[in-house]
Amino acid sequence: MSSSLLIAMRNPVIRASMLASHVDALALGTAVYVVHMVLLGFSDRPWQVYALTLVSGFGAAALISIPITYLQDLIADRPGLGSSLIAVNIFLGGAAQCRALRDRYALQRLFRDRTARRGGRALGARPGA
Fold this sequence. Notes:
Elements: H1 3-10, H2 12-19, H3 22-42, H4 46-74, H5 81-122
């Protein structure tokens, strides 16, 4: 066996993806990460959060590494396109997240200003004063 195959066999995420199809391994990684997120919501002690880091690592490794190999295998006749698509996805996801956060803070500012004006009127202040 080659040394890269031996190294790959030591990684449980890569080993699972070698034994199952990419879609099955991705579904398993997603399920593991969902379990992590649910258990994280119920944890109330620091040691529980630290223990869940291991679960998170397996799920995140599957969610990060398997889509790249899946896309590269899917479009094998165009080398590098799978990695480029992942990079574009990450960029667009970051842009969408920034937009969502901007809109969220704009809504919070709008509601805060409206609440402050209503509160001022309730206390007898005149608008514009």
